[in-house]
Amino acid sequence: xxxxxxxxxxxxxxxxxxxxxxxxxxxxxxxxxxxxxxxxxxxxxxxxxxxxxxxxxxxxxxxxxxxxxxxxxxxxxxxxxxxxxxxxxxxxxxxxxxxxxxxxxxxxxxxxxxxxxxxxxxxxxxxxxxxxxxxxxxxxxxxxxxxxxxxxxxxxxxxxxxxxxxxxxxxxxxxxxxxxxxxxxxxxxxxxxxxxxxxxxxxxxxxxxxxxxxxxxxxxxxxxxxxxxxxxxxxxxxxxxxxxxxxxxxxxxxxxxxxxxxxxx
Length: 265
Ligand SMILES: NC(=O)C1=CN([C@@H]2O[C@H](COP(=O)(O)OP(=O)(O)OC[C@H]3O[C@@H](n4cnc5c(N)ncnc54)[C@H](OP(=O)(O)O)[C@@H]3O)[C@@H](O)[C@H]2O)C=CC1
Ligand SMILES: O=C(O)C1=N[C@H](C(=O)O)C[C@H](O)C1
What we know:
Layout: E1 3-8, H1 13-24, E2 28-34, E3 57-58, H2 61-68, E4 72-75, H3 82-91, E5 95-98, H4 105-118, E6 122-124, H5 130-143, E7 148-155, H6 165-175, E8 198-200, E9 203-209, E10 215-223, E11 226-234, H7 241-251, E12 257-259
Parallel strand pairs: 1-2, 1-4, 2-3, 4-5, 5-6, 6-12, 7-9
Antiparallel strand pairs: 7-10, 8-9, 10-11
The structure holds NADPH dihydro-nicotinamide-adenine-dinucleotide phosphate (NDP) and ligand LZUJQKHR.
NADPH dihydro-nicotinamide-adenine-dinucleotide phosphate binds next to helix 1.
């Protein structure tokens, strides 16, 4: 069976890589793109895509679904639009693979309930790279023994959300095995706001944004006279693509929402 795929955010850094990936995958066909520019045109008319890529661009998701009948919507847009896209796709019984980060906990909960009610598969993956999933799993394991931990996530300077979805997910996974506790000196004072980073159950998350970076993270554990560093680097967006393919294939067999690839790998 060929999986009919639509991509929201096809012009973006991740979206354009996903377009390439879907187009060269034998078991998938790209049927539409969702955008708010170039509406009514075809991807073939955009300079960044090959001239034979005859894929229509829509701005209205419900029209896209009615006219092109996708099995799966891949969302790679931004934190402002991803929730509405995912919800609307589910309401139309279209499965979703979501790489976009920046969901609130309430939005995740609401989408999870809706997916269960509609029996509609949805994968929300803060990180598609296998190395990053392993970094998070190893960090969770290490935190059982070394509960003093800080997370440093480093990304390109075009990123909208901070902390990153991966940074937040890492902290959430660690929190499953670590009792909440404030780190550092009990009387510490920030003489410059934000100096100690974001606080998640006493763990600190530091966000670095610099041109030249792609996606990187260090999880640093401190103990008596020792330090353990677990680090992952994505040097390009290709690093995420085998995860995207895995999710598109897997979501076809699912009837609920899964948040994080570690739960299905
Ligand atoms: N899960 C993972 O492994 C990964 C996740 N990400 C996440 O994926 C998302 C996209 O990242 P990236 O590709 O770097 O970002 P980009 O800004 O390069 O791409 C986003 C694209 O979405 C478009 N867009 C914005 N709003 C809409 C909308 N309402 N409908 C359709 N398209 C829209 C943007 O258009 P315009 O620029 O014109 O506004 C742009 O083309 C981010 O949330 C990022 O954190 C990134 C890498 C890996
Ligand atoms: O915006 C990005 O680039 C990335 N976003 C995701 C995140 O917020 O964790 C995944 C990866 O780190 C790249």
